[in-house]
Structures are given as C-alpha cells and as structure tokens.
TrEMBL record:
Gene from which the chain derives: tatB
Protein name: Sec-independent protein translocase protein TatB
Family assignment from sequence similarity: Belongs to the TatB family.
Upper classification of the organism: Bacteria, Pseudomonadati, Pseudomonadota, Betaproteobacteria, Burkholderiales
Cited Pfam families: TatA_B_E (PF02416)
Gene3D superfamilies to which the protein is assigned, alphabetical: 1.20.5.3310
GO cellular component: TAT protein transport complex
Assembly and oligomerization: The Tat system comprises two distinct complexes: a TatABC complex, containing multiple copies of TatA, TatB and TatC subunits, and a separate TatA complex, containing only TatA subunits. Substrates initially bind to the TatABC complex, which probably triggers association of the separate TatA complex to form the active translocon.
C-alpha cells in the first residue's frame, strides 16, 4: 500500500489544517478515521470470504477424492466377491459332475426312520433299575454339589440335596 511515514503525515496534516480550517478539521479527521475503519473491515471480510472459498474448494476436491477412492474400493470388493462366487460355482459344478448320486425314496425314508429312532433314544427317559444295573446316574446332582464332591483336599461325603 501507500508508505506513509511520520514526516509525510505531518505534511498532510499541515496542508489539511490550512485548506480545511481549524473548525472543521476535527470533524473531517473523525470522518476519515471512520472511513478508514470501514475500509479495513471491508478488506478483512473480503480476505475471509476468499479464504473460506479456497477452503471450500479444497474440501470439495477432498470429498471427490474420497468418493473416488470409496468407489474404487467398492468395485474391487464386488469384483473379488464375484470371482470367489464364480470359483465356488465352478468347484460345485465340478463336484456335482464327478459325484452324481440320486437318492431314492426308500433311502430317504430309511434315513428319516434312523434319525427319529436316534432322537427318541437321546431324549427318552431311562428307567432307574437299568441305570443301577449298568452304572448310570440315578440321582441329579447340582453343580455346587459336584464341585464339593470332587474338590481336592476335602473329604467328600455322599450327601445329596
């Protein structure tokens, strides 16, 4: 800007005192100061707006870069999933072609009957006399009782709850 030193300001002040006069000089100086302040605020606002626009432009560019990177990652993941799916389908088709086995209705009925029989055996109650004869558990014992019974160093008593 304009380089005003103390000597130049003094010369301007003397000329203004002569031209304007001593009565109007304080009012003119106040008005000049007000205009100078407004100009400074205006320049500050312009600088702030320009810097805000620059930052906004940088953010837009960054957003675009991030979206491009995300899109490329998404496409890579989708491509790798499709490749894996194709490999699995190819392996499955190859497995089916080599081992074509057709289950008959009789086979399915036999498997269902075996499954029901095994499930019945797992879930059915076993009589007490059978448990005593073959050494099975005859009474239910809680977890705390089992811990007490099998805890090392304690003399176990066979009391049931």
């Amino acid at each position: 800007m304009i380089d005003l030193g103390l000597s130049k300001l003094a010369i301007i002040g003397v000329v203004a005192l002569i031209v304007i006069g001593p009565e109007k000089l304080p009012r003119v100086a106040r008005m000049a100061g007000t205009l100078y302040g407004r100009a400074q605020r205006y320049l500050h606002e312009v600088k702030t707006e320009v810097s805000r626009e620059i930052e906004l432009d940088e953010l837009r560019n960054l957003k675009k870069e991030v979206q491009d990177a995300a899109q490329s990652i998404k496409s890579d993941v989708e491509r790798s999933i499709l490749e894996a799916k194709d490999d699995i389908d190819a392996a499955w088709r190859g497995h089916e072609a080599s081992h074509e086995v057709h289950a008959t209705v009789g086979d399915l009925e036999r498997k269902a009957k075996d499954f029901r029989r095994k499930k019945l055996v797992r879930n059915s109650a076993v009589p007490g006399w059978y448990k005593k004869r073959h050494g099975g558990k005859t009474q239910i014992m809680s977890g705390a009782a089992r811990v007490r019974k099998f805890r090392p160093g304690l003399k176990s008593t066979s009391s049931f709850f």
